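Support reply, case 0932

Customer input (verbatim):
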Amino acid sequence: MLEQNIVKQIKDNIDYLVKQYRRLFTKEEFFILKKAALEIQKEPLTLEKLEEYNQKLLPYFARAWALELTDFSSFQIGAKFKFVITCPTVHAEDFKTVNRDFYSASLVTSKHMTTFNKINYGLVCSVDANNLLAVSQDDSHSVISQSSEKINGYYYAATTKSGQKIYTKKALNSLKLPHQIEMEMIKENIKINGDFIINRFKTIYSDITLDSATTKFLGVILFEPYTEFDYKEACTLAQLFHLDLKIIPKALYYEKLSITKISENKHYYNITDLDTILFLLSHLDDLKNEYSNLIFESFYDLVNIKDENNLGKISINRKLNVASIYLPNDNRYFKIDYSGGLNYCLFFIDNVEVSMETFKNELMNMTIKNNLPNR
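Our regenerated output:
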C-alpha cells in the first residue's frame, strides 16, 4: 500500500479541481470526480490503483492545465506567466529530424525559470486532455518500452497515441496542477540550494510528459541573460516552426517578486506586498535562515516577521493559520485567514471581509503613501 499522504494529496487535489474548475465539467463528470475522491479513501491505494487513477483522471486535470497556463500569443513581457516548454537537447536545426514518441518538457513560471540542463531557450507547448501524459515535479527519467514486457525497476506512467508504453524511474502522482508544481519546485530549490533564485548545487526542474503526435508548438522563449549561441538557437527554432520569439528578462521578474540579489546573495522582501506575504507563508520554515532583510522572532505558535528598517511587520499564528499585517502610519487591522489552505485565503481589513484585490490595493496604497520602497 502506498503512503497515506499520497492518498490525502490526491483527494485534496480532486476536491480543489471540482471546486475551482466546476464549470469545466458536465454533471456526469463532476460525479465521476467526486466518486473517485470518496473511493480513494475507502480502499488501499496500491501501485496499480495509482496508475489507474492517473489514467482515468488526468484528462480532467489537463483541462485545468490548459486554463492555468498563459496564452503565449497575448503574453506581454513583465506580466506573470506559466508556460510548459521543451528544451532541445540537439542543435535547433536538427530538432525537426529527430523522431519522438513523447516530449519531455518543463513548467517555467514568473517565479521559477529553471529548465532541463539549464538550457536557456525552448519551444512553448500546448497542454490539454489529448497530449498530457504524466506530471512530475522533478526529472522522471522516462523511457519507452520496445516490447510488451515491463521494464525492471521502472513504473508504468502512460501510453502514447502510437501505442508505446512510457515507464518512469519512480511512481508518479500526476494529478497535480501548475501552481502546485511551481510551489513544490520553489520549495525544493530553497531547500537544496539555500537560495530562491540561483541553482548553486542542483538544478530544480519539473518533467511534464507530452504526446508528440498531439502537441502543438505555440512559440519560442529565450531567457535573458543569454549567450550568442542561445540567441542563434532560439532564432533558428522560431524560423523552423514559423513561431514568434519572446525574450524574458529574469532580472525584471526577480525585482517584481520583491527579491533583489546583491552582495553575498542578500535578499530583500517587501512585506507590505501581498504576493510576497503569501510566498512567505508558504515557505516560512525554509526562509528563516536565509540572508535577507527580514528578522524572525518565534514564541511557541507565534512567529513575528519584521523588516530590518521597520517598514512593516507580519504576525503569524501558526496554530490558527492567521497572519496579521501592521503598516507604518496605518492603524487599520489587516488580516489573512488561511486556515482552509493558502488556496482558499480570506482577507479582512478591520475585521470586515474584503476581496483579495481590495486587500492588495490597500496595502499598495499605504506603501505609496508612506513612500516605502516597493521592491
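We compared this against your earlier run and they match. Two observations from our side: The longest helix spans residues 47-68. DSSP finds nine helices and 17 strands in the chain. Please reopen the case if you see a mismatch on your end.
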